[in-house]
Specification:
α3 runs antiparallel to α4, α17 packs parallel to α18 and α21 packs across α22. The chain starts with a helix and ends with a helix. 73% of the residues lie in helices and 0% in strands. It is globular.
């Protein structure tokens, strides 16, 4: 009986719980609080934080044979990030971008944060592939961050990179407004933009096809992301496959989010996460995201000057990939300056351009490193 009780005691989680695991459990509970109580991107943050809790209570769940190990294999094969892009495309209206092609410039400007962080990461001691994988956090695009980390062989950094990327996506409403207000005047924030023109059905159908052809010919390595994004949008705009559009944007999207979120959270075991490298990644990610926001706003100010005050610089901050949260933040900050100002649809243009821009930036890094 004594041996039985002794063996039973050693099989409990208490006997194997380290200080590091306990710390990560507290972090996971904090993130659960943000997801449930504060509602910061709960669809992403809740499964991520619960995966973090599970792996630190029971580490074998991520070992071969464990449930979340097989979820993670879908990340490693870059299947889940591509399927997320399929759902995003099926959900997203590209009309504002088509109506105002200048939005592409704002989406491109926001990528300066990515490449600035790449140089800074190398100065901090990261190798070039590691620096590239870390810097893409600046696009605030979790699926692209996972995709690039895996393509560049940075499996050991995937956990901190993915958690940082999704955390900054969730914290867009907190991080962006101070930067936006610091770089713009109240008069600039009050600028009202002209109503966007009506986009024809033909334009909406041709856009995903043309973008796929052009981008994939220039950077073939972006095909899994850009291809799925544009396929989802073609489902939406063609009007002939409503069932596929609804499946991609609802049932399939939610299933993929469950698998992706829990597996990403499960990469944050104490042994893998509690390192100085993790702190550097989190700091670099914040710098990259802040630089990207600032670059978008500053380029928006330049466009404002060149157009004689027709463009509100606030929409430049939406050039990061956090769709549609970044566009909503542009609307919110503009409305604070003038409650009658409606910037949401104008900001959706740079926001969609940012999704494409971050995928192109990832493709550029893969081309540079011969992936």
């Amino acid at each position: 009986m004594g041996d039985t009780l002794f063996n039973l005691a050693h099989q409990t989680g208490f006997m194997n719980l380290t200080l590091g695991n306990a710390i990560m459990c507290v972090v996971a509970l904090g993130l659960l609080y943000l997801a449930i109580v504060k509602e910061y991107e709960p669809l992403l943050l809740l499964p991520i934080s619960f995966g973090m809790l599970l792996v630190n209570l029971y580490p074998p769940i991520m070992e071969e044979g464990g449930l979340l190990h097989y979820f993670f294999m879908l990340d490693e094969w870059t299947i889940l990030p591509s399927l997320i892009f399929l759902g995003v495309g099926a959900l997203t209206d590209f009309g504002p971008l088509i109506a105002n092609p200048k939005s592409f410039l704002l989406g491109a400007a926001a990528q300066f944060g990515v490449f600035g962080a790449f140089l800074l990461a190398m100065l901090m001691g990261f190798t070039e592939p590691q620096a590239a994988a870390v810097s893409i956090i600046g696009g605030a695009d979790g699926p692209t961050s996972i995709f690039l980390a895996m393509k560049l062989g940075q499996r050991e950094l995937m956990g901190p990179i993915a958690v940082a990327a999704y955390s900054y996506m969730s914290l867009v409403p907190i991080i962006q407004p101070p930067i936006m207000k610091a770089l713009t005047t109240e008069e600039e924030r009050k600028i009202k933009m002209e109503q966007l023109r009506e986009v024809s059905k033909r334009e909406r159908i041709l856009f995903p096809i043309v973008v796929t052809i052009v981008v994939c010919l220039i950077l073939p390595s972006t095909a899994p992301l850009i291809g799925m994004l544009m396929l989802g949008n073609l489902f939406r705009e063609s009007g002939v496959v409503r069932q596929l559009q609804e499946t991609a944007s609802n049932a399939l999207m939610y299933i993929v989010v469950i698998f992706l979120g829990t597996s990403v959270g499960a990469t944050t075991s104490a042994e893998a996460f509690l390192k100085w490298t993790t702190i550097k990644i989190v700091v670099l990610g914040l710098i990259a995201f802040s630089f990207g926001t600032a670059a978008g706003v500053l380029f928006g100010k330049l466009m404002c000057k060149l157009t004689g005050g027709k463009i509100n610089p606030l929409i430049g901050s939406a050039g990061v990939s956090a769709v549609p949260m970044a566009a909503r933040v542009s609307q919110k900050v503009g409305a604070e300056a003038d409650p009658t100002n409606f910037l949401l649809m104008h900001a959706m243009g740079p926001n969609v351009a940012g999704v494409i821009g971050t995928a192109v930036a990832a493709g550029a890094f893969m081309a540079i490193f011969g992936v």
